[in-house]
Amino acid sequence: MFAGNPSLTSVHVSPNILATAFGICALAGAWIFHRRSSSHQEYFPSPPSDTFLGHLRIMPLDFLWLTELAKTLGDVIHVSIFGQPMIILNTAEAARDLMEKRGANYSDRPTTTLLGKMINWGNMLAFVRYGDRFRAQRRFVHQYLNSQASASFRPAQTQQAKILVKNLLKNPTDFRKHINRMSSASVVKLTYGHDILSDDDEYTNLAVAATSRAVASVQYIPSWFPGASFKSEARLTRKLSDEMIYSAYNRVKEERASGTAQPSLLNSLLEDYEKTNAIDKDHELNMIFATGNMYAAGVETSEVAVVTFILMMARNPEVVKRAQEEIDRVVGTEQLPTPEDRPNLPYVESIMKEVFRINPPLPLNLPHRSMKEDVYRDKVIPADTLLLANVWNMMRDETYYQDTEKFYPERFLPKVMAPGYDFTKVCPGRFFADTSVWLAIANILAVFDILPAIDPVTGKEMPPAAEYVPGFTNKPKLFDCRINPRSDKHISLINQECN
Ligand code: HEM
């Protein structure tokens, strides 16, 4: 869901300031730890920790490490960083019990002063605290992104899938760039009705800069980090972010005034608002932030899914062949697959499910926060605990899946029903994302073979490794592969359909 920029990890702070901040936090953490442990409450099992720092040394939390830990400690694990408790839910059952059945207590979001106030993302739907603002923004996005409303964006999404195919034909080596462009152009069109026509689009440049900086601030820079460079970094991030959301908002308002606005989420929200003839600053702020959130929320997640698909196809050419047989039989070779073909392409569908299983784009979900103390399986979960759902591990649960590291779409075919990665209950962009990812997968399979790269020295195929860069999203590491048109006839089909 969110892009990180590792270059921001190197914030320079004087060692003295750092040591002082570190000492204060360690003492505060130790005090909280002492207070909690002396109350004789029983918590979920924890890995060994440092007295003062808690589990800080094992940060950042890595889902691979947590998956290993679950094997010895069980499916619910308690960790603590400077006295901040966190619960890791390693099975779908535990996640359902708390996040769904007791959702009223666990739907809040944690926020930091840095992200929430200094960078001003505390009003964004994905980070806003549970309350009126959250409910208003959820209502907005649900109203215009529900399954029926999302269907009206299918022509624009189909167009983006065609641009992707055309770009892959022209320059297959840059497949990651083309996939990113498809994903961002689709989300920007949905949100603001704006067409991204070049690689140097003003809104995209701002969105990439603001989003990567804001996310890096959460991933790499603790909110208590002092120092002038940290503050100036936060100021710059806020400037970029405000510019990103306000400039896009104002542009759509101007387009509405001049009668040139294209259909979009924001256009519909403004239309409804204008009908009320009211001036409601709070409502305006909610429209600004609900839409301002979409780029960060929607681009990288879909992109990771499609890049993972390419990776898995390059490792499993027999899957590509089987999918192509299905597409040729159902759709033919005179046209590209459309959403109407989807119900008749069960194998393509199972490939998509297996992509989400083998590499869930948000492997630890987004953090939730408990509002009140709770008792679950006789163990205490304190108020203000962060909850992380280890979706990576859930998708490898041997109760449901065998041979979990194997890319095996057949496991999802009707006879072998297994639960897939279910971002459907929680992500408001799910219907839109589902169509974008499906269109990319089906269109690429229809016209391209995806093969391992060839080693220039030995002349042998080199299947890419299934390796990822852990972060909020789990991007596949850079890899090479060959994306070749299936035949001259398929080249003609691309040229004819994708202009
Ligand atoms: C394959 C692509 C996607 C995946 C896997 C995905 C998954 C998720 C997940 C797991 C969450 C967190 C749910 C939770 O807190 O428990 C989420 C939240 C969210 N997603 Fe998506 N998402 C995708 C694409 C999109 C798209 C395209 C959009 C917008 C057009 C979008 C908008 C959002 C928003 C606004 C939130 C925050 C919702 C809230 O806090 O209530 N997502 N998504």
UniProtKB/TrEMBL annotation:
Sorted alphabetically, which keywords does the UniProt record give? Answer: Heme, Iron, Membrane, Metal-binding, Monooxygenase, Oxidoreductase, Transmembrane, Transmembrane helix
Transcription regulation keyword on record: no
Write out the pathway annotation from the protein's UniProt entry: Secondary metabolite biosynthesis
- Residues annotated as binding heme are C427
- Which cofactor(s) does the record list? heme
Mind telling me which residue stretches traverse the membrane in this protein? 12-33
Q: Which domain of life is it from?
A: Eukaryota
State the similarity comment: Belongs to the cytochrome P450 family.
Q: What is the name of the protein in this document?
A: Cytochrome P450
Task: Give the organism the record lists.
Answer: Phellinidium pouzarii
